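F.,

This is the one I mentioned.
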């Protein structure tokens, strides 16, 4: 099973009680951060209630780290849960993707574009 357990300590930019943060190895945009569960949990739905409580705090921390080095105009926050949703590393991780004015011609619909044609309504 493909997990994040082999990430070296020097790549970790922040560590909480249940998660650690790293810059994405294949970033969608400059500053793209992953929030990764320290224990192997397959996806969001396997997290405990206590782990779910810390997640918004980690999202805020990721935003703070991104904004300390970049000047994004917006953010996409997303999780792929299971293979049918595009998950390729089977350990919980949440993407915090900074967005920049002009990075797409028409960003309306955001995450809805994960299925062709569904982003336009």
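My design for it:
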């Amino acid at each position: 099973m493909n997990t994040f357990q082999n990430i070296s300590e020097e790549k970790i930019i922040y560590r909480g009680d249940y998660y650690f943060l790293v810059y994405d190895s294949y970033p969608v945009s400059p500053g793209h951060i992953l929030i990764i569960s320290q224990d192997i949990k397959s996806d969001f739905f396997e997290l405990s209630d206590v782990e779910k409580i810390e997640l918004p705090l980690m999202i805020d921390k990721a935003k703070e780290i991104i904004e300390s080095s970049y000047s994004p105009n917006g953010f996409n926050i997303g999780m792929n849960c299971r293979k049918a949703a595009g998950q390729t590393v089977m350990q919980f991780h949440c993407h915090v993707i900074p967005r920049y004015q002009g990075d797409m011609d028409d960003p309306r619909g955001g995450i809805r574009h994960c299925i062709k044609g569904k982003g336009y309504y």
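The CA atoms of residues 65 and 114 lie 26 Å apart.

Talk soon.
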